[in-house]
TrEMBL record:
<dbReference type="InterPro" id="IPR000340">
    <property type="entry name" value="Dual-sp_phosphatase_cat-dom"/>
</dbReference>
<dbReference type="InterPro" id="IPR029021">
    <property type="entry name" value="Prot-tyrosine_phosphatase-like"/>
</dbReference>
<feature type="transmembrane region" description="Helical">
    <location>
        <begin position="135"/>
        <end position="153"/>
    </location>
</feature>
<keyword id="KW-0472">Membrane</keyword>
<dbReference type="Pfam" id="PF00782">
    <property type="entry name" value="DSPc"/>
</dbReference>
<feature type="transmembrane region" description="Helical">
    <location>
        <begin position="248"/>
        <end position="266"/>
    </location>
</feature>
<protein>
    <submittedName>
        <fullName>Putative phosphatase</fullName>
    </submittedName>
</protein>
<feature type="transmembrane region" description="Helical">
    <location>
        <begin position="278"/>
        <end position="296"/>
    </location>
</feature>
<feature type="transmembrane region" description="Helical">
    <location>
        <begin position="225"/>
        <end position="242"/>
    </location>
</feature>
<keyword id="KW-0812">Transmembrane</keyword>
<dbReference type="InterPro" id="IPR000387">
    <property type="entry name" value="Tyr_Pase_dom"/>
</dbReference>
<feature type="transmembrane region" description="Helical">
    <location>
        <begin position="92"/>
        <end position="108"/>
    </location>
</feature>
<keyword id="KW-1133">Transmembrane helix</keyword>
<feature type="transmembrane region" description="Helical">
    <location>
        <begin position="187"/>
        <end position="205"/>
    </location>
</feature>
<feature type="transmembrane region" description="Helical">
    <location>
        <begin position="58"/>
        <end position="80"/>
    </location>
</feature>
<feature type="domain" description="Tyrosine specific protein phosphatases">
    <location>
        <begin position="376"/>
        <end position="441"/>
    </location>
</feature>
<feature type="transmembrane region" description="Helical">
    <location>
        <begin position="160"/>
        <end position="181"/>
    </location>
</feature>
């Protein structure tokens, strides 16, 4: 997937020009229609906090406010290849679609009266007011587009100058308040809507609408999906009952809803873990409350047993089983095999590979066939190095998922003769592993499948 971004295709800008013509037409038609619709209503509410009356009107910030139009058009002309252009076009299109839908479903009005401004900056305001009206508020389309454009330009600019993108993006975001175009609530909603557009059309990971062909839906998926969905609904209750600061509870509600979606649809890649072990920016923005909960949970459950366990030594390799490591902890290993979809890992090891699995879901036999082979291919370069190397296989706790995968590999490589022998081997160094009856049944099913694959 990464290669799709980096490959340069000459002439992509010509297709970008066509996309720009389409998106510009779509923008003006839909934005104008939503404005006209809201202005025809007899009563359009506003959501504004008392402290917002202290926000100053800074006329000069109309410059960064308008600049987003230039960056919007250029982003479609600067794409490196057709894949990136397609994703950028879809992101911008859905940004418009999501925002306009919200403007029509729940129209809001900006409530401050702006005094008439003169001079250079006043002219820019006059041009803006000729097209815009005090409607089309939440989510701020300006902020939605800003998230998409910030993600684009931070990738395209020389890393040494990335700070320019961050500063100018901040000014654009600030300008929606200091030009008196939006109330505060429009901004966090715009950030989430922008993150949703990035998440729907990723560049470095599998898209959330694509299936995971290895894993089958089970009652456990449904049970855990319902658990997270109930959690999302409980977070919504105070947001709607009490409003005010309780509106922030919408954030964990949205986060938990996406986790529920991962279980209901059997898609561990909804967490968007990349090949370097980090989540995408979109996943961080949408799922940050859950990621914090999951990390704290991993530390609490392993508080009494934080250490990794040496399971096997062979061919100069020390094979460890453990919980998700910290960045500092990874430095003692030459290779990391990551079995955890829901937590990011910071690492700079020579060999790193991931296999996405959902928390508390037993790894199924068909998955074990694939991941055991993947782990063997992963560990071979470490063996071939002919140096004493340490390898860590891990999941969130190092109790179940990574344990099942390690057992599958031990069986595949004939280090053990049975599932029971493998469990006994691991329990000698890590007696606190947790393998349910379903885990063990899947492992035995895997062993049966493995026997069928061996030529007689």
């Amino acid at each position: 997937m990464q290669n799709n971004i980096l490959n340069r295709q000459p002439g992509t800008w010509k297709w970008g020009l066509l996309c720009l013509v389409f998106l510009a037409s779509f923008f003006f038609l839909t934005y104008g229609f939503a404005n006209q619709y809201a202005s025809s209503l007899s009563n359009v509410p506003s959501i504004v906090f008392a402290w917002e009356h202290h926000i100053p009107l800074w006329a000069w910030t109309i410059v960064p406010y308008w600049s987003i139009d230039l960056f919007y058009g250029l982003s479609l002309l600067l794409c490196w290849n057709k894949f990136e252009l397609k994703q950028q076009t879809l992101r911008l299109f859905f940004a418009q679609l999501i925002s306009i839908s919200c403007f029509l479903i729940y129209p809001l009005k900006f409530s401050f009266e702006r005094a008439e401004l003169d001079g250079f900056f006043g002219l820019w305001f006059d041009v803006l007011m000729g097209f815009d009206k005090p409607f089309n508020q939440a989510p701020s389309l300006h902020i939605v587009l800003l998230v998409i454009l910030w993600d684009f330009y931070r990738r395209h600019i020389n890393p040494s100058y990335c700070w320019l993108v961050h500063i100018w993006s901040f000014l654009i975001g600030l300008s929606v308040l200091t030009t008196w175009q939006h109330h505060f609530i429009d901004i966090p909603l715009g950030l989430l809507a922008g993150a949703l557009c990035l998440w729907l059309f990723p560049l470095t990971v599998k898209a959330p609408y694509q299936k995971d062909l290895l894993q089958q839906f089970t009652p456990k998926h449904f049970k855990l999906g319902c658990f997270y969905l109930v959690g999302a609904l409980l977070c919504l209750v105070p947001a709607f009952l009490f409003t005010g600061a309780w509106l922030w509870m919408l954030y964990p509600a949205i986060s938990l809803f996406f986790v529920a979606l991962a279980y209901f649809t059997v898609r561990p890649h909804i967490f968007q873990k990349q090949q370097n072990g980090q989540m995408t920016v979109a996943a961080w923005m949408l799922l940050a409350p859950y990621f914090l909960f999951a990390w704290l949970n991993s530390r609490l459950w392993t508080y009494r047993h934080p250490q990794d366990s040496l399971v096997l030594q062979f061919n100069g390799v020390e094979l460890y089983l453990g919980r998700i490591p910290s960045a500092e902890h990874t430095k003692q290993y030459a290779a990391l095999f990551d079995c955890c979809a829901e937590l990011a890992v910071s690492q700079q090891v020579q060999h790193y590979e991931k296999f996405n699995t959902l928390d508390l879901i037993p790894v199924q036999s068909q998955q074990l066939l694939v991941v055991a082979a993947a782990f063997d291919g992963f560990i071979q370069p470490v063996i071939d190095s002919r140096e004493q190397q340490k390898v860590l296989i891990f999941c969130a706790l190092g109790y179940s998922r990574s344990c099942s995968i390690l057992i599958a590999w031990l069986l595949q490589q004939n280090h053990v003769a049975s599932v029971e022998e493998a469990i006994a081997l691991i329990q000698r160094s890590r007696p606190w592993i947790v393998l349910s009856e379903i885990n063990i049944a899947e492992l035995k099913r895997f062993q049966a499948l493995l026997t069928q694959e061996i030529p007689q």
